[in-house]
Amino acid sequence: MKNIDVSQLTARFPLVQSLIALEPVTWFNPKATSLALGLPYVGLDGNDVADASARLARFAPYLCEAFPETRAKHGILESEIAVLPAMQATLNQRYGVEVTGRLLLKKDSHLPISGSIKARGGIYEVLTHAEQLAMAAGLLQAGDDYRTLFCDEFRQFFGQYSIAVGSTGNLGMSIGIMSAKLGFTVTVHMSADAREWKKRKLREHGVIVVEYAEDYGVAVEQGRKEAKRDPNCFFIDDENSRTLFLGYSVAGERVKKQFDEMGIRVDTEHPLFVYLPCGVGGGPGGVAFGLKLAFGDNVHCFFAEPTHSPCMLLGVHTGLHDKVSVQDLGIDNLTAADGLAVGRASGFVGRAMERLLDGFYTLSDQEMYDLLGLLARDEQIRLEPSALAGMAGPWRLAAGRAWLEAQGLDKAKMARATHLVWATGGGMVPTEEMEKYLGSARL
Predict the structure, then answer these.
(1) Which element (helix H / strand E) includes 274?
(2) CB count in 10 Å sphere of residue 93
(3) For 272, which DSSP code?
(4) Of 9, 20, 137, 273, which is the most exposed, with the fewest CB atoms less than 10 Å away?
């Protein structure tokens, strides 16, 4: 990577000075365009998402056998959508800005197996790899009942192979638990900010956890190096994986179906706004891609990041993507939102999605803690800090009147709007850990 001249960068992009000062910012993306114009840059399309959806359906019978908690939804890993009227009223008062329309929460925080959004992409990539290995060996064929994978023969077969990943926590949880269940030897390279309870849970599942004193980028780099030494080791690359991205993207068609069941319309007169916490970018990028395919130009996606880790905003705003890190600017990348503690964004996601994202914003750790406490008080829903990054989004949007006017989003349309906050993790947080989170909230 080239050395970054910070003075030149701030002169060219004044917003960067606010990032360096750790000020909460909101940036509406002038590069955003229509789905038709933005889609070619992604390099994937609806057929790829349909293929991912079909693969998850094939594995559903196996998941029912391996994880009994998935049987209620027939092995399909999906989360409910909650309506938040009390939280909406509280935040209207807190921020002094009235958000009209409907406030909803997508509870990927409570997905089965690993309790986070990473259950979508991480589990999907492990299943894809397992399918490829089994088919190449002649042990699995198209049309087979995948329940057959839940046996000692397949566990012994997969035991010849290993899987590795670098993670701040939640991706490692999903990949570690899923890989170990199938029989793989799995190593999760964990950054310094990863929570102890996540490391402990992984070890309880027989996962090898390698800890680093440095951040996410170092954990990924070291994991990649270790994997290269073993020809039977498959490294899951959160920074560049199209497979992970596609696993997340299936969420779009799932939300569309849920909205149909809830009687929620999304069209030019009923816009949809989605607020996604962002770390390296694979999860929110894939979900946003799926949502754009499902709802077209009637959905507007916004990424939310901690003030101490604004890597995707920095990369997209400057056009440097993975060529610049927050540390290059002297930002420490230390945040209570461990799942978002990433200094350098995915270049693949940034370049693929920069024309399909309407905006970005940052918020402080204390703001996330406060929102966590308010959600627990008002709606009895408990999440981890990073999952609350999206909650401030509707009020940031409501304050951006010039952008709303430019988009033709008048008061009448906004009164009919749906605001969907994506909750990314927290369903498996131990009680004592959750009490600490709640204790940090100022209500």
Answers:
(1) strand 272-277
(2) 10
(3) E
(4) 137
**Tokens 């945040």 appear where?**
335
pLDDT value for 2: 60
- 441: tokens are 């909230």
pLDDT tens, position by position, 385-400: 999 999 999 999 999 9
Q: What is the mean pLDDT of residues 30-35?
A: 97
The amino acid present at 365, given as its one-letter code, is D
% of the chain residues with pLDDT over 70: 100
Non-local CB neighbours of 2 within 8 Å, separated by 6+ positions: 323
Q: pLDDT digit string (tens) for 81-94?
A: 999 999 999 999 99
Half-sphere exposure of 320 (CA within 13 A, CB side): 21
CA 239 to centroid of chain Cα atoms? 12
Give the whole-angstrom CA distance, residue 249 versus residue 262. 21
C-beta atoms surrounding 177 within 10 Å: 24
β 102-107/81-83 pair status: antiparallel
Give the residue from 308, 276, 214, 262 showing the smallest Cα distance to 23: 308
Say how far apart CA 279 and CA 61 lie, in whole Å.
32
Provide the pLDDT for residue 131.
98
For residue 59, give the DSSP letter. Answer: H
209 bridge partner residues: 188
What residues contact residue 323 under an 8 Å CB cut-off, 6+ apart? 1, 2, 315, 347
Terminal C-alpha separation, the chain: 44
Torsion of CA 415, 384, 110, 64, to 10 degrees: 150
Instruction: Specify the pTM.
Output: 0.96
Determine contact, residues 142/136, Cβ cutoff 8 Å: no
Beta bridge partners, 277, equal 304
Neighbours of 191 (CB within 10 A): 25
Q: What is the DSSP string of 344-389?
A: S--HHHHHHHTTT--EEEEE-HHHHHHHHHHHHHHH-----GGGGG
Convert the pLDDT of each residue in 150-198 to its tens digit. 999 999 999 999 999 988 889 999 999 999 999 999 999 988 778 899 9
Instruction: Round to whole Å and give the CA distance between 308 and 333.
Output: 5
pLDDT digits (tens, 9 = 90+) for 189-200: 988 778 899 999
* Residue 392 in tokens: 């401030």
Q: Which of 57-66, 215-224, 241-250 has the lowest mean pLDDT?
A: 215-224
